[in-house]
Design goal:
Helix 1 runs antiparallel to helix 7, helix 8 packs antiparallel against helix 12 and helix 13 packs antiparallel against helix 17. The chain contains 18 helices and no strands. Helices cover about 75% and strands about 0% of the residues.
């Protein structure tokens, strides 16, 4: 495998760590900048919303620019934005520092996947995607631990900046120049928008991510306020959550290969159950540790479920276009969930944020029984499609 592929995987890790890394330090940021927790939550939701809005446009505006130049530019901006975040004198500057790089976030994502597939096919795409999946479950605990270890919230941003800097140097040294090639087939993919099942799956993806992140975005706050854990314990719990999530990807992939809809419904049911248990037993230390382990193991599977549910019936010719829609849907869902969770916290307290998540997931469970002529096959993904498109079906 070429070094350039691993450099792009590291870049993906740095970018996703920047997006989700604030989750573990939201309580600290709320205290430092004297804002409410729900207001601090906009540091995540505003980032995700910006990605969702910019995704369809930013790539179109940069089609004639060298792809290596664009990827290195994106990482350079993430390095600077994290440093700016660390030295922000007030919440407004911190918000600006978060939003600006979010405009370029989809650019790195789309280019790196396309380049990886062209270089070495699905194997290379899997390597790049590993950076995303690991960052999704591990980025939060390592940035939280950094802040706790140095007793300074700025350390988390310094760490994210350093990771992006290393990836920037890797791209600069190991990725060859890649002049842009104008694509002429994009418009032909729009025909898939006539498929009502696709729209149902996209809406379900948004609601699923909203359900997942309405509670997960405030998990550090929940553990601090309800479970009465200190900073070190919260860091360990987030690390446990993330570690179990790595295992979840593997298990969920096996289950989806056998039956997509059954796995989807079990996922929704278990995630609702584990969060309800967190509501009733969240104030007791040992039970909450056990509950959090299962919560982490279940949670991360949602990313894979959303992709495979949506792309399994999409023609290969339109897969790239649908994946770009999923990128927007994921980030719309994250933004919506964080916003709704913040509203619940502001009105009813952090303990009741669980019910917003459970309600959204329950709606999703109901939608899983609604179809528009979609074939329910025992095997989720055709064997040939699995060989051709294995890992690129996971977006952040």
């Amino acid at each position: 495998m070429k070094k350039s592929i691993y450099a792009m995987a590291l870049g993906a890790f740095g970018i996703i760590t920047t997006e989700f890394g604030v989750i573990g330090i939201l309580p600290n940021l709320a205290k430092v900048f004297d804002v409410s927790v729900d207001t601090a939550g906009w540091l995540l939701s505003a980032f995700a919303l910006t990605v969702a809005v910019s995704s369809p446009f930013i790539t179109a505006l940069t089609t004639n620019i060298n792809r290596k130049l664009l990827m290195t530019l994106v990482l350079a901006v993430f390095v600077v934005s994290n440093l700016l975040s660390a030295f922000s004198p007030n919440f407004t500057v911190l918000m600006i520092a978060r939003v600006l790089p979010a405009f370029l976030h989809p650019l790195f994502w789309n280019i790196s996947l396309a380049v990886a597939y062209k270089e070495s096919g699905s194997k290379a795409v899997s390597v790049v995607m590993s950076g995303v999946s690991i960052a999704t479950v591990m980025g939060v605990p390592i940035t939280t631990y950094a802040a706790e270890f140095f007793n300074n919230w700025q350390a988390s941003f310094f760490l994210a900046s350093f990771v992006s800097l290393v990836a920037f140097m890797g791209l600069l040294l190991f990725v060859p120049s890649m002049p842009a090639i104008r694509k002429t087939t994009g418009d032909s993919q729009l025909y898939v928008l006539k498929n009502p099942q696709l729209w149902l799956n996209l809406v379900s993806t948004i609601l699923m991510l909203a359900g997942m992140f309405s509670s997960y975005s405030y998990l550090a706050v929940y553990l601090e306020k309800i479970s009465h854990m200190n900073g070190a314990q919260v860091s360990l719990m987030l690390l446990l959550f993330g570690g179990m999530g790595v295992l979840s990807n593997w298990i969920t992939g096996i289950a989806l290969s056998r039956n997509v809809m059954r796995t989807t419904r079990i996922f929704f049911s278990l995630l609702i159950l584990v969060q309800v248990l967190a509501y009733f037993f969240g104030g007791i230390f040992i039970p909450m540790v056990i509950i959090l382990s299962f919560w982490g193991a279940i949670h991360t599977g949602g990313f894979l479920i959303g992709n495979i549910r949506t792309t399994r019936s999409v023609p290969h010719s339109a897969l790239e276009f649908v994946n770009s829609l999923l990128t927007s849907c994921y980030n719309i869902g994250i933004s919506l969930g964080t916003m709704l969770g913040g509203l619940i916290i502001a009105s009813y307290g952090v303990h009741n944020v669980i019910w917003m998540s459970a309600a959204l997931l329950a709606v999703n469970l109901g939608l899983s029984f609604v179809t528009f002529g979609e074939k329910h096959q025992a095997t989720a993904v055709d064997a040939n499609a699995e060989k051709e498109f294995p890992a690129p079906m996971l977006h952040a």
